[in-house]
Amino acid sequence: MNAAAVRLGAPFAASLAFHALLLAAPAGGDAGPVFQPLSATLVVQLEAPAPAPRPRQTEAGRAASALPKHYLTSREVDERAVPLEMAPLVYPKNAYINRIPGTVRVRVYISAAGRVDKAEVVHAVPKGHFEEAAVEAVQRTSFTAARKGGRPVASQKLIEVEFDPYGPTPEERP
């Protein structure tokens, strides 16, 4: 790594923050959303890692994946899905250069095995800057499966991804 990259890397890492918050109703039945911070160490990269190769599906696997799945909400499960390992968040280059902060809410559909089946943007401010980076980071995150009646179940949750070019580095966060 050359000296220029080292000089740029430290301020870049120091200026990024990733705060993921869970949106879920409290156990008391209140329908209002509750934000819960996710505690995880994040690694910030200047470039996105190469996507992992997808396993080949058999005809039976394709037929099974085509079937509609019911993903339980946080109100319907006994234990919510919890992130095991947060994937690196890649700050979009143009947004970082222009010091644009933003927030993206992503609905995540998590399988009974803890894999992300699907992630979709629910809301983004400002639009058009951070959606792709947020979805990619969430899709690469692994979770513990939600549980109902002691058994792992497919579930869904909302995660809020914050982009802050002036925020603390992962090392500076508690």
Short characterization:
The protein is of the alpha+beta class. 20% of the residues lie in helices and 31% in strands.
Name the features:
11 strands, TolA/TonB C-terminal domain, elongated, 4 helices, alpha+beta, five-stranded antiparallel beta sheet, two-stranded parallel sheet, 174 residues
Mean pLDDT metric:
73
Q: Which CATH top level class fits?
A: Alpha Beta
Predict the CATH topology.
TolA/TonB C-terminal domain
Strand order of the largest sheet: 2-1-11-6-7
Number of helices: 4
Biggest sheet architecture: 5 strands, antiparallel
CATH architecture: 2-Layer Sandwich
Strand content: 25-35%
Find the count of extended strands (DSSP E, 2+ residues). 11
- Please compute the radius of gyration using only Cα atoms: 18 Å
Show unreliable segments. Answer: 4-43
Number of discrete domains: 1
Overall, the morphology is: elongated
The helix/strand order is HEEEHEEHEEHEEEE
